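--- STAGE predict ---
source: upstream dedup step, 1 unique chain passed
mode: sequence only
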Amino acid sequence: MFAVQASALARVAVASLMDWPRLLSTNLGRSGGGASPASSSPPPPGLSKEAVLSEHAQQRCVAALRRLRPLRVDPAAVARRAAVLVPLCLVGEDVCLLYTLRAAALRHYRGQVSFPGGMQEAGDGGSLEATALREAREELGLAADGVRVWGHGPWVGTARRDAAVLPFVGFVGRVDVRALRLCPHEVEAAFAVPLQRLCDPKLFRYTQFRGSFALPVFTGGEYRIWGLTAIITHTVLKALVPAVYTHHLPKEWLLEHPEGFTYDQFNA
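--- STAGE serialize ---
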């Protein structure tokens, strides 16, 4: 079922501002889906679409992600490979991250918040980027040619440490979340959270496990974001908007995961 793992080197595909008109319209006009966020105030300058989606911001984000080591996994030690798409989108004037709520009938991680993604399949041609794009199309109806993939972050281990997940960051254009074509067997709902909310310190928490390590938790959307999805969100935002996203985790993070997580890496 699983093809050969993708190259560990990120393929940096930086979107030109000239591509914006096509990307802004590609993923509109779908049927089904969840609710879009309501903006209470305009985004601050550091979170405007001009700042976050500029070529400089994209290059800086990918460069920062490439410097990170694998998190909670040794990719060479596990055979199972998976990929997720971390979809940046525009809802109104807000730059958002697009999430899914996994269907209640699923066998694993049902009812949890996730990014679109799944296990690599033979039909993906050995490319985990292709895996992420295929899953985004199957789960949300996002057309692959409407996604501008910037690059990928570090490998992240699942809770069971039995698979390595590669997150790909991509801009999917302007999205009407309520009109997305959801796969009912996999996705209960889709929702977008503005970066402004994700960066709000009043909406950031962390969960302490057995007094030994902590994981980020985001409470600024329709659903609580935690676990693997919160780890990826935290990592991407640190790379994407470092001047605005200033959330920190306690140093206890190190105590149970010295082989992967480091305080300096995650909180620098």
